[in-house]
Write a sequence for this structure.
């Protein structure tokens, strides 16, 4: 991965790493998202990733969405609504919000 130097010539410290393969990445991020689901609070994908400094997936454009679909299919989360993202590079785009299901709060989700 190429890192562009800042205007003063310094190299910025990367804030998050990128996983080399999907399965390793999924195993790394899954616990943070199931814990968020169990908390019962409403959240965005970026909020959880940023809060826990989770690694980026090999293909961010596809894998973050696939993660949320898997969590939804397994009964951990449900769609809650929409908000604007706090992700600095997304310019306040609209994003889905999620909330843990009753099963996730009970620890009974698949």
């Amino acid at each position: 991965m190429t890192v562009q130097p800042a205007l003063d010539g310094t190299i910025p410290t990367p804030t998050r790493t990128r996983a080399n393969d999907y399965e390793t990445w999924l195993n790394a991020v899954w616990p943070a998202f199931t814990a968020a689901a169990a908390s019962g609070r409403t959240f965005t994908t970026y909020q959880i990733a940023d809060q826990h400094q989770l690694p980026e997936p090999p293909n961010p454009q596809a894998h973050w969405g696939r993660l949320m679909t898997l969590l939804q299919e397994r009964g951990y989360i449900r769609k809650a609504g929409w908000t604007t993202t706090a992700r600095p590079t997304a310019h306040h785009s609209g994003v889905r919000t999620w909330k843990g299901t009753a099963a996730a709060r009970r620890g009974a989700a698949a």
